[in-house]
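Researcher: Please predict.
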Amino acid sequence: MGKKDSGLTRRGFIAAAGSVAAVGSQMTGAYGDITRRAGKLAVLGGDPVRKNKHWPQWPFWDDKVVESVTKTTQSRVWCRIQSPSGTVPTFEKKYAEMTGAGYCVATGSGTQALHTCVEALGIGPGDEVITSPYTDPGTIAAILSARALPVMADLDRASYQLDPAEVERRINENTRAIMPVHMMGQPCDMDRIMAIARKHNLRVIEDACQAHLARHRGKVLGTIGDVGCFSFQSSKVIACGEGGAVIGNDEKLMDMCYTVHNHGTSRRGRTEVIGPKYRMNEFEAAVLLGQWDGIEERHAKRNENAAHLTAGLKDLPGIIPQKLYPGTECGSFYLYTMTYKKEHFNGADRATFIKAVAAEGVSLSPYIPRGLHREPWIENVLNTNVYKKMYTEARLRQYRDELACPNCDAVCDEMLMLWASGPLLGTKEDMDDVVDAIVKVYENRDQLSKA
């Protein structure tokens, strides 16, 4: 890539990202305001909307990233415990500052970050954690690794996020925590989730693995609950291949997170608790530090382009961008997502629509094919001797009986995504191509039966 990032000041970053809703409301060009091109669909031999164009590559790298990794290699400081000023401790300080958190503990993955928090909060056998069925398996793996029970609540169909009413309905005497998952990098309904947590005296572990630098009511996601967890896997908007982090403001809890992730050995050098070895290595942190100057600028760019897309798709029948909750100021836009309603496209199924838009030069796809409530892990886990010992037969039977999540099923069937880490760093003309391709297919929907 080689392009140098100019970076933004803190004030400039916040102003540029702004409120997603406010930015979108200032855009022009909603469907109905502009005459789009009609004509033969490209999938049937017509001219495509977009051809011979490329999206920005991802993951990001430039000479600074290479230099940072080279410097770490030459230093021979390859493990965080070798130096208090190595790349991992440096990253932890900088990430805490960037997010407004008091403390940060870097881990080897987002899943490791989540499991670290579950263990640090003392959640274990016999305990239950309420979370989303619409997420990466790492979310429930973090709970299962502590031998606790992941209880899945259904979604708000329009936002793809946990429905707070469904969360509260699942609370029982064994519930210890709520683990909201900020899907696509947008905030959950944190006002209601935090109110429920306070009402029932529950801890909140934010799964912000997709939601770097997203803000809700002035706070960066991950700083609203007791702790917040992030992933730096290669597809994420801040990436180093693998890697994760825990952030929080409770010094005692964050000290326990350090101890847990350091195979149970505290900063005082004493082995104190059960813990895995989840330390981030110095090379991962070197990659992260090498791209630091442009992180906030890229975040602002994604938000600007997402607002442009939303404005362009506004009022287009059958395409509904992801609902954002009040208080959402900006998102990470790891994915740009929308709901597809086939009844507005002459009944053409989602696969046919995707095929037609792809022929126009824009790649959309489904995301999660089925919720975790429909995967075989449930019977495999509940039939183990350890879970039969920890939970009563009646509780496990009730668990099976309450697995239905119809809104999650609908989201899996209807949702479309534009992978956004790289593409949303494109130009406004690139965004117009996305809108034009979708609108062209809509305006020629009578041809989809032939596609």
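Model: The domain at 63-291 is CATH 3.40.640.10 (Aspartate Aminotransferase; domain 2).
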